[in-house]
Amino acid sequence: MKNFSRPSFARCYQAIPEIWRGGWTQRGSLHQVTRTLTNAETLALPTATIELAPAATGILTMPIALVFRADTAAGAYTNVDAAFELELRTNATKITNIDVTASRALVLAAAIHTWFIASVLDTTLTEGLDTAFMNRAINLAATNAAAGNLTGGNAANTLRVTLAYLRYLPSGTLA
């Protein structure tokens, strides 16, 4: 069960009033996107990103929750570094703080795993919300240190990613 007292969860929801105080309208919208990655896309995640939420001009896009469902029953991945981590990025900026152990569990065992993350914002972000999320797409990526791309797996493997995110419009743009 998710520990809802973690700073990352609190930061996610503290950001909403911060947006409103900063001149953003309270008229935002909640979106959800699901993307199922093939084995080939999963193998390449350390060197290629997958767009989950497109950039929108003049819009702040902020991720709030993620669900991963990995079906690796046909074959586990190999060449997985001890620091392997799935992450969300805006451009090249990492915006998530996803557990390394859980990330590795999704790809190392030949099984079916489901993993829910209630808060995805990295509490160490040094950029302001406008800089980190304005006019930017939300992309899925992975770090695998010097190991490069994953190997192994099986053509039948899939990684389904569901992202919930908020979109906010600047004040004064809506009638």
How would you briefly describe this protein structure?
The chain is of the alpha+beta class. 19% of the residues lie in helices and 38% in strands.
List the secondary-structure elements in sequence, H or E: HEHEEEEEHEHEEE
Determine the mean pLDDT: 77
Low-confidence stretches: 1-13
User: How many distinct domains?
Assistant: 1
Distance between the termini: 42 Å
- Helix-and-strand structural type: alpha+beta
Strand content: 35-45%
Question: In DSSP terms, counting alpha (H) and pi (I) runs of 4 or more, how many helices?
Answer: 4
CATH architecture: Sandwich
Q: Main sheet?
A: 4 strands, antiparallel
Would you count the extended β strands for me?
10
Roughly how much helix do the residues carry, as a percent range? Answer: 10-25%
User: Any idea of the CATH topology?
Assistant: Jelly Rolls
Rounded to an integer in angstroms, the radius of gyration calculated over CA atoms is 17 Å
CATH C-level category: Mainly Beta
**Overall form:** elongated
In spatial order, strands of the major sheet run 1-10-3-7
